[in-house]
Prior knowledge:
The protein has helices spanning 17-28, 40-53, 68-82, 107-133, 153-173, 205-215, 225-236, 254-257; strands spanning 8-12, 32-37, 57-62, 87-90, 136-140, 179-185, 247-250. With 263 residues, it is an alpha/beta fold. It contains 8 helices and 7 strands, in the order E-H-E-H-E-H-E-H-E-H-E-H-H-E-H.
Amino acid sequence: MSEFASKVVLITGAASGFGEAIACALAKKGASLSLVDRDEENLGKVTEQCKKAGATKVLAVVADLRIEGDIVRAMNETIETFDRLDVLVNNAGIIQLGSVEDTPVESFDSIFHLNVKAHFHFTQLAVPHLEKTKGNVINMASTAAEILSPIAVFYGMTKAALTYFTKTAALGLAEKGIRVNAVCPGACRTNILKRPGLLGPGLDEDVLFGMEEKSSILGGVLVEKQDVVDAILFLASDSARTITGSNLCLDRGAVLAGPPAMS
């Protein structure tokens, strides 16, 4: 029997992309899941997938993580339903592309609220519950925290903030027996770049992923969803009991190579 069969995992941004893949993988291992997302339709589909895949129990919470009251409600509903929490996966996030000159300053609060503040708030609320189970937190960061990109100013700033938060939270919560880690994927073909108007003239997914492939020192192979899922399952498991404060890069060495060429 999988160790996750006795555990409750809360996943934010669970209706698509990495969140969906993580939820389905944990469902197959028999975990109980609290799935949080604002996309009610897709969240319902993922919930049904997880039930069919073997999850012990699944709770779907429709919530907008830019609203603090929704975050509190999501955590309260999770504890009321399961009476425990073993793993928190802070996965929800958005991407905002733009340079220093053309990135609207009005976008600052929106992206930082979802990519950083929501992670902090969920972690803060989870602490008393994770202390009881000696559980752990996994944050979804990115290689954008380390690879400087003039076209992703705000996004890179949020991911850098997350890697700092991961280390400081790990240090601060260690005495409670709570581990805190992050995964930092490189470019991966998910739906995060599908938002209309996100990519400007002359910039599309093939261009972005082409730059990532060229920068990989292990060969031109992009990160796949399964790579991220495998890393999260490991960090969430007892096999990683000695690991905390780690920002695990999944990038085929792109960070080591430095910023990719823009042409």
